[in-house]
Amino acid sequence: MKLQHYIGGIEGLEPSSFEKKVFVQPWEERIFGIHVAMMGLSNHLEAVESVPTKFSSFWTWGHLRQGAEGMNPFDYFKYRYYEKWLGGISGFFVESGYVTEEELSTKTAAYLGNLDAPLPSGGETAIDEQIIEYLRVGDSPACDVEAQPKFKVGDTVTVRNPPPVDHCKLPGYLRTKKGIVDEVYEGTYNYYFPTGDGVGDPMPIYNVVFDSHDIWKDITEPNTKIYVQIFEGYLEDPE
């Protein structure tokens, strides 16, 4: 388990940032836009087949999170939010062959040497329309595969303690904790890709309620409940 998967309830961390601006620096807005464009043009979307884009990769929120969570914990907590995005996306483009490190370094040096240099312009109307449509309709994880839920409302369940992986959909503070199934969501849901710790294939999702004292002991208020949506792959019968 990586520290960045387990920050809930940890004492001694530096105070959280309460910055109210969505984007602090202009480049943060641009890297957000690049990420949105990558999602809207991801090759797993059928609508992209007719769009004249040179982007031919699989990219989702999961891939973005995988890049951030896969960092060394010291680096993860050292960099700011969009700095992690910038590093992960830049690394992805280099590893995927869209640009070389030398080309990226040269272009970076050129802009740092002339901060007023105009940014690239132009674009394809069809690409813009596809990205806007993606923002409108989204990309639902619901799927048509039928699966009988292993648990029912009222069942006591134990959260598994899966092996550490680059990207995890399970809050670290819930590992090995017992909870009660509050709701079984209709249908099955997959994840964008197998994470290596039990999530990826179509499966039910549950709303599980936990007693906060079972998680954080007496540092929480009495009679406080924690509700968490959890993939079935992270749950097991209590011992």
TrEMBL record:
Q: Which InterPro entries match?
A: CN_hydtase_beta-like_N, CN_hydtase_beta_C, CN_hydtase_beta_dom_C, Elect_transpt_acc-like_dom_sf, Nitrile_hydratase_bsu
Q: What is its EC number?
A: 4.2.1.84
Q: Which UniProt keywords apply?
A: Lyase
Q: Where is the Nitrile hydratase beta subunit domain?
A: 141-236
Annotated Gene Ontology MF terms?
nitrile hydratase activity
Instruction: Give the reaction(s) catalysed.
Output: an aliphatic primary amide = an aliphatic nitrile + H2O
Q: Does this entry carry the keyword Lyase? A: yes
Database matches in SUPFAM superfamilies: Electron transport accessory proteins
Looking at the record's lineage, which domain of life comes first? Bacteria
Residues covered by the Nitrile hydratase beta subunit-like N-terminal domain: 1-121
Biological function: NHase catalyzes the hydration of various nitrile compounds to the corresponding amides.
Task: Give the UniProt family note.
Answer: Belongs to the nitrile hydratase subunit beta family.
Q: What is this protein called?
A: nitrile hydratase
Gene designation: nthB
